[in-house]
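Quick log. Single chain, no ligands specified.
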Amino acid sequence: MEYFTDAFKKYAEFSGRASRKDYWMFVLIYVLIYVGLFVIDSVLYTAWLAPIFSLVVLIPSISITARRLHDTSRSGWWQLIYLIPLIGAIVMLIFLCEASHADNEYGPARVLE
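-> predicted structure:
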């Protein structure tokens, strides 16, 4: 859960870098919470919990994705490739799964303990 809360602490920080583990743990926790809220919405016959959660997490997810792209030596503007149907999602998945690069213009590589 620390990865998820760290993303919220840095919700408006679009500079710096985020490791592969930071990004994918955030995505995993996001999906688990979203599915849980979707199930609760289904049981209660409501349709507002999951969409509100998605709106709350929108800016932090854009921010951590930009920092993950910085870790692979790309600009955060590459997120606009999502606007290209299917191809954009495939390209972004490849970019987000790439290994971290050494020191670059976005900052030094993180040293894992």
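The chain is about 60% helix and 0% strand.
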